[in-house]
Amino acid sequence: MKKTLIFPLSGLIILGVCAFFFLDPSQEKEKVELSLPEVLFETSGFYDQEILNDKELDDFFIVNFFASWCKPCLAEHPLLMELHANGVKIVGINFRDDEDNFVEWINKHGNPFFHIIRDDGTIAYEMGLIGVPETYFINNLRVVKKIQGPLFYEDIEEYL
User: Fold this and answer.
1) How far apart are CA 67 and CA 93, in angstroms?
2) In which domain, by residue range, is 76 found?
3) What is the CATH classification number for the domain harbouring 107?
4) pLDDT of residue 52
């Protein structure tokens, strides 16, 4: 009985010693920046049928997934309108929405988007969408911050 415990116990001790010496909890994890998926620049816009051109975008811009049926999307909409009024370019991705409801929603609440793309789930999958609303801050075509849920001013003020 004692011999059968020696090997697993010694293995655990060796593993613990290795973890102690090789894992340094004081090291900060690097901020991971992700590239934008190509499909974002291959999909026609809703109103103009134009393809999103990265040359038209500023170094910093926002990608926002939204839907007319999403109550938190409506809650963040006034902030998006304010950002748009202040010159921030926002690419809106309308996620799995009925076209008539989407158009009515934009007409009623205003259009803060520089470019709108309707998505059946392809772009959402490529970007790792969890749910709507979801907002990505983009700097030099790299995702630098992701907000799941409604956007608040505190989330973006460091970028303005």
Assistant:
1) 8
2) 34-159
3) 3.40.30.10
4) 82
Query: How far apart are the C-alpha atoms of 155 and 110, rounded to whole Å?
Result: 22
Is the pLDDT at 23 greater than 80? The verdict is no
Q: Is 136 helix (H, G, I), strand (E, B) or coil?
A: strand
Q: What are phi and psi of 105, to 5 degrees?
A: -65, -45
Phi and psi angles of residue 62, each rounded to the nearest 5 degrees, phi first: -120, 140
**24 in a structural domain:** no
Residue from 73, 113, 76 nearest 96 by CA: 73
Classify residue 31 by its DSSP letter.
P
Q: Domain total for the chain?
A: 1
CA distance 147 to 130: 10
In this prediction the pTM is: 0.76
Angle at 50 between CA 49 and CA 55, to 5 degrees: 160
CA distance 77 to 140: 25
